[in-house]
Specification:
alpha/beta; 6-stranded parallel β-sheet; 11 helices; 12 strands; globular
Length: 348
Amino acid sequence: MATLKDIAECAGVSISTVSRVLNGTAPISAKVKQQILAIAAEQGYPLYKLAKPVPEATEPLRHVLLVAPRNLMLESDYNLVSLSLINALKALCVQRNIRLRPFPAENDAITEDQLIAALQGGRQSGILIVNDDRAPLLQAVVKSGMSAVLINGEDPSMCLNSVMPANYPAAACAVRHLIEHGHRRILHLTWSSCITIKQRERGYRDALLRAGIAVDESLILSLPDFHPLTARDAMLRWLSAHPDRLGVTAIFCAADNQAVGVVDALAQRGIRVPDDISLVGMDNILPLDMLPVSLTTMHLPLDAVARAALQLLTQQLVPAQSLGVTQHVELAGRLVARESVKPLNTLA
């Protein structure tokens, strides 16, 4: 984890200035504050820990049920996005004296009865649903009548408040970065999943079209999951089937996890990143030492997503704060340019 010294050196300011920004103990110019907070987020400093504890007597939320697929709650080197989001929620709930109770969803059809059983006791003041926007689950939550927020998903019925990173513009930004570096034949690795991943594919497609580049369907590899081994094996098969790489000079992965497998496959075939091919990921959640080259990626604000989710849930319980309509909130990401992208005219 980054230290105050690391952030200060990167920002070119004193440690005391960083401390004052992060603790809010003295006025600092908006430009410097924004720079320091951006660097802190990029280096993995846990900004959610800066929130001050809320007195229990003034906290409208008491007990919150956390609904998420069971596999996303398991510790795993390749489940870092979900774990980071859930850990941010846990830390915020500790600060606000909120009891967060997990309800791991084990199957593809959570029923109303199962949800009611999980809510037995009547102490819950709200529900948070993470990374799971299947219709049966959302319908059960709506029928429960509880205040609820969907995180990293969308409710097509527009009955539930929701918050997520801005996946579509973030993906478009990542592809645009490659295009600006001269790349026009860009392979996209994605996977069959929820609407958030489909939005990333849409961002890929639209970025190409807006640049006047036709979308080549043969350059979109949709895999069963986001595991690095799945991406590695699929990339090896693709390279065997296309020794000329179909003219591809860059790869955009819908998740950093996939980029890990892609780098492995390319290395096995003697293809170097970025000397022979450029690579961009999504999430900015990997430890920097997981790859032999630092990965250019889109940073998605998971800490801010967690804070926004609790804020939306609180608004439903405090009439004075409510807008009176269902809200869908998307939080902007930002490009983190590192070593894995080179201008096309400098590729070997």
